[in-house]
## 1
Amino acid sequence: MLSFLGRTFVALAASLGFAASALAQDYPNRQITLIVPYAAGGPTDSIARLIGESMGNTLGQTIIIENSLGAGGTTAAGRVAKADPDGYMLMIHHLALAAGATLYPKLTYNTTEAFAGIGLVNSGPFILNGKKGLPANTIKEALDYIRTNQEKVTMGGAGAGSGSNLCNMLIQSILGVKISEVSYRGTGPAMNDLVGGQIDFLCDQSTNSMSQIKGGTIKPYAVTSLERMKDLKDLPTMAEAGLPGFELVQWHALYAPKGTPAPIIAKLSAALEKALADPKVLARFDDFATVLFPASARGPAATDARLKSEVALWGKVIKDAGGPAK
Ligand code: MLT
């Protein structure tokens, strides 16, 4: 027999469950905001706009993109962690969400507790690129150039913990050099400056690098995956270039605030799946040299598990490298 308190609890839980499923049935009945933690025109922004448009068509509501910038992507994550868990504010993020958990000791949210994964979107390498006017023509010459000119060499980055910043940190720690990083609010503007010759190097996602490489406006030196890229077969890997074990692979995922009702997460996940089968999206992913996760391992549970394991992975890498900057 249930006590009075027990019965009250069951009745409350049932009515909350009912309210959640009523909310989900009606969802979405207005526009959805998709927060992008980096500047417009960059790689994360490009992926967000592409899948946002396709998901909006499926859901019958516009998905508007809002670039919420700063602190290596943690400002955006802090906003989404505090948002109402009703499915109307979502976020796309990448490995910086995981690295930020160790790099920023005073975060306003708990990275592994604050978000509900919707799905894994794509994964692709970074490419170490140089400005066209650099004398180096190969990765070996580029690394020699960095070693000999470390006081004056400039590398672009999108803030502590961003992919470009982690790539710069790995290069510096392996080469044992100290280089000045020019900080941007995303690699969209950083790439503009590389093309304009204002900075020397930018390690950026293939998504943002491919069209410039094909247009001959920048010099690609090496790819950060352990395998060569099928689109740029002649480009060596960083590991082949004498930086053993060098591996940095980008991955994007979609999140909602924790507490978002499961039926809403399911609707969003189904809309994401539809976007990931959309020929228009797939053709752009090909241009970006970025790939999908296997269909059986990219849903909400796989996203939560990946975030957890990447928080642990980057926690170890950053601590082994001396911990977050004080
Ligand atoms: C990064 O450096 O992590 C990204 O390229 C940032 C961005 O999407 O602009």
## 2
Amino acid sequence: MLARCTSYVPRHARAMSTAASKVKVGFLGLGNMGGHMANNLLKAGHAVAVYDPTEAAVERAVAAGATNAGSAVAAAKDADFLVTMLPTTQSVIDTFDAVLGECKEGSLLIDCSTIDPIATQKLSAKAASMGRRVIDAPVSGGVGGAEAATLTFMVGGSDGDFEASKTVLQSMGKNIVHCGGAGTGQVAKICNNLILGISMSGVSEAMNLGVKLGIDPKTLAGIVNTSTGRCWSSDTYNPCPGVIDTAPASRGYTGGFGSALMRKDLKLAADAAAGVGAPIPVGKASLEAYDRICEEGYAGLDFSSMYRYVSENTRK
Ligand code: NAD
């Protein structure tokens, strides 16, 4: 069970935020999601200092008006808010180890990455022991939601830090939900992605089976989307190429949510489930399926490439 964790909130920090404030934001991790999120902070008029080891990502952000901080510590030093949008639990731990002692007093660190909820709790407790403030605020809504600033943020942390975080989260998303204490944002996120991994595996299998048995994929998707099989994986992000023009499946499975990231999230859910003894037999099967496609070269493709895998491995 996740223990509830109370964070240290300095009084001046509680008073710091109003939705209309323009603030200094450090932003770490300008990938498929973070690049758009940083852009939206700039569009809202915030001053954004960025760092990412990928030069091209930094160049794009600078062209949009960001400052190249050159390092994570430099991005953190002068920031009122530091946003992290990083790929793995370890990358967040390493980054926080580097910046916690260096960030400005009273600043709020907002981790939007999807990572292990227990690691998040430990980071929050460590930050509190150093007089620093951290919340977890993982997102749903995908790359489209990041671009359109319509993300949902699932926030774990104190009431005061949740309120303060709205100053920047409102520029990047539409729904900002307080889930509870530290780590509960991550709990919400991994439970959602447990469902998503399973539903995408199911839709991929069903769409492929239908196509191989001779039905037109658009006809099948239309039936599913007005029937009991309907879900986000079928009606918004259908994995069969050509069914939805804007879905990654219709552009070679590029530019979305990588299979490696889905495998990571299913593993986070499996580890958390093992920790409390909750059975997830279907989730484990989906994790195994993502393990397999990642090993077979699909790791960098969008996670809806599960369809391509099952299609290419069908006998007929
Ligand atoms: P991505 O792989 O496209 O981007 C990650 C970026 O982080 C890369 O540009 C990489 O160079 C950078 N990076 C790596 N280590 C770094 C460090 N130490 N400091 C600064 N930058 C560093 O990943 P993404 O799709 O943008 O996802 C980011 C996070 O958001 C992940 O935790 C993912 O699970 C989560 N997420 C992704 C989606 C999606 O649809 N892509 C949706 C919801 C949540």
